[in-house]
Design brief:
The complex is a heterodimer. By secondary structure, chain A is mainly beta. Helix content of chain A is about 5%, strand content about 50%. Chain A has a single domain, classed as Tachylectin-2, Chain A (5 Propeller), CATH 2.115.10.20. Chain A is built from 2 helices and 25 strands. In chain A, the strands form 6 sheets. Chain A has a 5-stranded antiparallel β-sheet, with no helix packed on it. In chain A, strand 6 and strand 7 form a beta hairpin. In chain A, about 50% of the residues are buried. The N terminus of chain A is likely disordered. Chain B is mainly beta. Chain B has a single domain, classed as Porin, CATH 2.40.160. Chain B contains 6 helices and 20 strands. In chain B, the strands form 2 sheets. Chain B has a 14-stranded antiparallel barrel with strand order 1-3-4-6-7-8-9-12-13-15-16-18-19-20. In chain B, a hairpin with a 2-residue loop joins strand 6 and strand 7. Classes of the chains: A mainly beta, B mainly beta. Chains A and B meet through strand 19, strand 20 and strand 21 of A and strand 2 of B.
């Protein structure tokens, strides 16, 4: 394993990123919400210090596909970054308080091994799961191999020198979402832009592989969900089936009633329209599609999104390209 | 009386169901866990057992103040439920009609924030059903009681509320280009309807030590019926209207403040050989299964002539019954005469305690509704000081009672059948702290 080295030119470029500074605290919703929307994007009045709805802007860079965790009032984001020149990589942004926006964007995973040289993207974070290192960041190289990096503090990641899940095992599927069920790690990918597939491996085997042991044995199969199972807003009040799945992310949440629930967030497109949709499961095997998009008609192009509980309130983070590219936030009205 | 009730009701915009069911009336009763049906012989009898009015020794007036402060949570998030605070007042006026002893009583709880407060939420909205919708409303009752002889006392009366049924009319012209150019004249048509529901009570005194009681309190629900009508020409000022006599009407009907009918069986025992100790027990049956759907139904119609086909109006949704369960509520109380004849025979001191268990009538919330609730354990303490023969002017006793109670709602988990539920699994729990003071004056 090797520690990531960050070129100074990149650091100086990226430290200029971020938005905002100061602002009133967002109102906390009084009732519980599971976080399955529908959401609306953050309003300027809710966070005057932000360039709403963006909590992270990176001039000159395209950022998308956020993976996020909340530590109290602080948000930590891992995003795919596509510079205009150079290869894609993964960066981390710290958001001390949502109302203030991101204060910095730091490269955290750069192409290092030969199989990564075409670039890295699609971060998927698993944190605090028994049997695994505290932080495990899964990612996908441009040509399809899935890699992993581990960390105990979420800052300094160590990348596995070899792919955790070779591209050949998943037939060129793109991703990436990751979650842990009772005893298995599930990685979700999109095959042919139309079908969701899942790669499963036991947590024990994955842990051994992350410690330098042999690669885990994967079981790869269709999830039984296709693009047409999701809908995007059409004209008027109509909705239309999704034609393409553009990205997938996943999370496992502990409900207040003490059981696990597994959510998938899927960006789907139908022609020029895009929407962020969701599917959910209690057993981690059969997923039910949420009939209404979490976010539709966003006024820009969506690419990846996730939902997390932030200060007792469901918070949507989504890659959004309008005239600018950034990570936008949304709330349940 | 009706006029008073009506006037009070008119002043109320928005309310919640019976605060006395939740927190009791008066410090003596509340301190004894509201196990008071066979004990009541003062103004509190107007709520606990109207028959107790006929046990009053003479004219009695009581006045007090009590407050309940909720710290209740849904999934760990504190809910913005307002405290229930208000003034208590009661009067008992006994007399004789020939050989028959009778008493008339009035009992009032008057919240000091809102006389009554209503809040109708979307059916799906998570809420703490029995507190968000129960504890902030006026209670006003008038009762008459008779002593039938052989230790039997019978009482009954009415509790009063009022509701409004009204329509707001707007007539004139609605501008199409700029709404500010509209010219509309409003008129309001509101009916104030008095609501009455009865209560009945019986007390049977078996010698000096034992009293048995039975009480019936009728159910109550407040129906809200509000309509809005616009009849107007559509068009800009100075131009021929695009549509003449367009009409939009909307009517919303909802119910709130549901109070189930209740039957209370009570007993009070002055323990033989330990005369300082009074024990009381109440068991209340509450018919929560008749709880109506706490959501609004609406009718909406629009007539804009040749443009009607361009608008599709959604019909009002229908909701399943909430499926609440009937419950039995046991309550225990004790009063100990800690000291008598202090200050040269002028002062008596009592200490009190009580416990009341109210199981939750709310079923599992696996579907669309998210009514949060939990079992309620109320622990109460209190004390009373009775001053006797204070002066020639005040020869009869003057009592000051105080109480402190804590209702604990152990956290209860609700699980949704469908993982896609917008609300998802949730928990409900917390505490409600209650305090109060009550002055009772016999004349």
């Amino acid at each position: 394993m090797e520690h990531v080295k960050t070129p100074m030119w990149l650091l100086s470029l990226l430290c200029a990123c971020g938005v905002g500074g100061g602002g009133a605290e967002l109102r906390v919703e009084s009732g519980p919400q599971s976080g399955l929307g529908p959401f609306r994007l953050l309003l300027a009045a809710e966070a005057p210090a932000l360039d709403a709805p963006f909590v992270l802007l990176a001039p000159g860079l395209e950022v998308a596909e956020p993976a996020a965790v909340a530590d109290g009032a602080q948000l930590r984001l891992w995003v795919s970054v596509r510079p205009r020149q150079g290869v894609p990589f993964i960066a981390e942004a710290t958001v001390p308080r949502l109302e203030e926006g991101a204060s910095e964007l730091m490269p955290v995973l750069l192409p290092h091994a030969p199989w990564e040289q075409s670039g890295l993207g699609r971060p998927a974070l698993v944190r605090g799961e028994p049997g695994l290192p505290r932080y495990v960041l899964f990612y996908q190289a441009e040509h399809g191999d899935v890699g992993a990096a581990v960390s105990e503090d979420g800052h300094g990641f160590w990348q596995l020198p070899v792919p955790l899940l070779p591209a050949a095992a998943i037939g060129g599927a793109r991703g990436l979402g990751g979650l842990v069920t009772a005893q298995e790690l599930h990685l979700f990918l999109v095959r042919g832009e139309v079908e969701l597939v899942r790669a499963r491996a036991s947590v024990a085997e994955v842990a051994r592989a992350l410690g330098g042991g042999p690669p885990p044995g994967w079981q790869v199969g269709s999830l039984g969900l296709a693009a047409v199972d999701f809908v995007v807003p059409g004209s008027g009040t109509e909705t239309v089936p999704g034609e393409r799945i553009l990205s997938v992310s996943a999370r496992a949440v502990q409900t207040p009633a003490g059981r696990r629930r597994y959510d998938l967030f899927v960006t789907v497109g139908a022609g020029p329209r895009r929407a962020l949709c969701a599917a959910s499961s209690y057993d981690g095997r059969q997923y039910l599609v949420v009939p209404t998009p979490l976010l539709g008609r966003p006024g820009g192009q969506l690419q990846g999104g996730t939902v997390l509980l932030y200060r007792q309130r469901a918070l949507l983070l989504v890659g959004l390209t309008t005239t600018r590219s950034g990570i936008a936030a949304g709330l349940i009205p | 009386m009706l006029a008073l009730a009506g006037a009070l009701g008119l002043a109320c915009p928005p309310a919640h169901a019976n605060p006395l069911d939740a927190f009791g009336y008066g410090s003596r009763a509340a301190a004894m866990g509201s196990a008071y049906a066979a004990v009541a012989a003062d103004g509190a009898a107007g709520y606990y057992n109207p028959a107790g009015l006929a046990r009053a020794a003479g004219l009695a007036i009581d006045v007090g103040y009590q407050a309940a402060v909720p710290e209740l949570h849904l999934s760990g998030v504190r809910q913005p439920i307002e405290p229930t605070r208000g003034m208590l007042a009661g009067i008992v006026a006994p007399g004789h009609l020939g050989p028959v002893r009778f008493a008339f009583g009035i009992t009032l709880f008057l919240p000091d924030q809102h006389i009554t407060r209503l809040r109708v939420l979307r059916f799906e909205t998570p809420r703490l059903q029995l507190y968000d919708n129960r504890t902030q409303r006026l209670f006003f009752a008038a009762n008459l009681a008779l002593h039938l002889g052989w230790g039997l006392h019978l009482g009954g009366g009415l509790s009063f509320m009022s509701r409004t049924r009204g329509t707001v009319h707007l007539r004139g012209r609605v501008a199409i280009g700029d709404a500010d150019d509209s010219a509309l004249w409003s008129s309001t048509d509101v009916d104030l309807v008095a609501l009455r529901y009865p209560q009945l009570g019986l007390v049977w005194l078996l010698g000096q030590h034992l009293a048995l009681a039975a009480v019936y309190r009728h159910s109550f629900v407040l129906e809200i019926d509000q309509a809005f009508e616009i009849t107007a020409d559509l068009g800009n000022p100075g131009q021929e209207p695009v549509v003449r006599g367009a009409r939009l009407s909307q009517r919303a009907q909802s119910t709130d403040l549901f109070q189930p009918w209740q039957v209370v069986l009570g007993a009070a025992l002055r323990v033989p050989g330990l005369e300082q100790l009074l024990l009381s027990l109440d068991v209340t049956f509450a018919r929560w299964s008749e709880m109506p759907v706490p959501a609004a139904r609406y009718e909406l119609s629009l007539d804009i002539g040749r443009f009607n086909d361009l608008v599709r109006l959604q019909p009002s949704a229908s909701f399943p019954p909430p499926g609440f369960s009937d419950i039995l509520i046991p309550a225990l109380g004790a009063e100990w005469q800690a000291a008598q004849g202090l200050l040269r025979g002028h002062l008596d001191l009592d200490v009190r305690g009580g416990y009341r268990y109210e199981p939750s009538p709310v079923p599992e919330q696996e579907g669309d509704s998210s009514f949060g609730d939990a079992d309620k354990h109320t622990f109460s303490l209190g004390a009373g000081a009775t001053l006797r023969r204070l002066s020639e002017i005040l020869p009869r006793p003057l009592s000051l009672d105080v109480h402190l109670a804590l209702t604990a709602l152990p956290e209860r988990s609700f699980r949704k059948r469908d993982p896609r539920s917008p609300v998802g699994d949730f928990t409900a729990g917390g505490v409600v702290v209650q305090v109060g003071g009550h002055l009772r004056w016999s004349m």
